[in-house]
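Researcher: Structure prediction, please.
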Amino acid sequence: MDDNMDYIDFTPSSNKRKRRNAKPYWNNELRDLLIITNKAEKNYLHFKGDRRLKNNLKNTFKEKRRQFDKRLRQEERKYKAQRLNNIKTLNRTNPKEFWRERSTSDSGFIEQIQQLNEQLEHEYETLNPSPKTMIRFTTHERSDLTGRNKTCMQS
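Model: Predicted structure follows.
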């Protein structure tokens, strides 16, 4: 039994498709940073020597992981900003293209439109409207108004 070697299949895979990452903001720079991070982690985990050197490898791994995570967050923010900007311009310039984009996109599109609406509301609130054009009601006055509207609609 000890004389036999384990069988390892070295034939190439029959699957010729390239693996596509689901993140649309993924790029070659992120791939390279991930490879570097994984190598640093492997060096740290497989090191069997002086604990001071192991701590240095651990700190190196932590730094590489921080760099990768930071760059990943930057790319994600940049992608979301570009997507929101694209939604803004499509909605203003070409509504048909906007709705075509909406029908072909995933559920993240709705979240992005909600974020855009929140952003626009915030921009609108930061404007300095004149007191004549802006009437502010207290919550009590709003409930009175909604109650009046209901009674008017019922009659």
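Model: The chain has five helices and no strands.
Researcher: Thanks, that helps.
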